[in-house]
Amino acid sequence: MTEVTIGKAAKLTEIKVPTIRYYEEIGLIKPFTRTESNRRLYGVSELNRLRFIRHARELGFDIDAIRAMINLQANPEKSCAEINKIANTHLADVNRRITGLQAVKRELSRMIEGCNSGRVDECRIIEVLQDHGQCQNEHSHLNAKV
What is the rounded (10 degree) CA torsion for 135, 137, 142, 146? Predict the structure, then answer.
């Protein structure tokens, strides 16, 4: 395969063109070369890097973790212990978020079960949302992204 344009790279990797440009801007990827008219061209290695980044993002790794793993790939003879540490840290974070989401689910279910579908001024859901002290599950550590 020869080098492909950014549009073709986007199609092949299922990553939008602006996202590829962003990854280039923050140093996760660079084009294989540029044409005389300054168009980006990507080769097999760059496409593989983009697929790696996409999959890592799908699994929830943040940009810093991805950058660290990419940097570690530059030393293939080294132990993968550091990559294992990054993955374990991410797994622990995922488990914390799952625990938090389970608490949110329990609290929402409890609020909904307490609602008699009457009038809004008597709504149990509104009442509990206005007074966090009525919650029975700890979920305050969760942020709006969850």
Answer: -100
Residue 9 lies in a domain: yes
* Alpha carbon 22 to its chain's center: 15
CA-to-CA distance for 73 and 44, rounded, in angstroms? 16
Claim to verify: residue 10 and residue 56 sit in the same structural domain: yes
Q: How many domains does the chain have?
A: 2
The strand pairing partners of 33, in sequence order, are 41
Comparing CA positions, the residue from 127, 129, 60, 71 lying closest to residue 97 is 60
**pTM here?**
0.76
How would you write the pLDDT of the chain (146 residues) with one tens digit per residue?
A: 589 999 999 999 999 999 999 999 999 998 788 878 888 899 999 999 999 999 999 999 999 999 999 999 988 898 899 999 999 999 999 999 999 999 889 888 887 877 767 676 667 777 777 776 666 666 555 544 44
The residue range of the domain holding 36 is: 4-60
